[in-house]
Amino acid sequence: MNELLQIKGFFEKLGNIRDGRFYGSLSDLESLISESEKMLELTNEVMDYMHEVRMYKSEIKNLEEQEKLNHELNQAIENENV
């Protein structure tokens, strides 16, 4: 819940930007910059996590394909032995 309040405050401070100018206090601007940096860090963490997930999904797909091929090979060997 605290994160939601921080995000709400971030966007309220963004509302102080009009026509390329910031109309808030220096403290608000410093806070906005700090919160922007935190959001960038979180975004980077999410992107890293998403990359790992894609890698795991790819690995799972490769293992499933290999399992399928092994099954087909075993079936062919069994048919040869019959």
From TrEMBL:
Domain of life: Bacteria
Entry keyword set: Coiled coil
Coiled coil: 46-80
Protein name, entry field: Uncharacterized protein
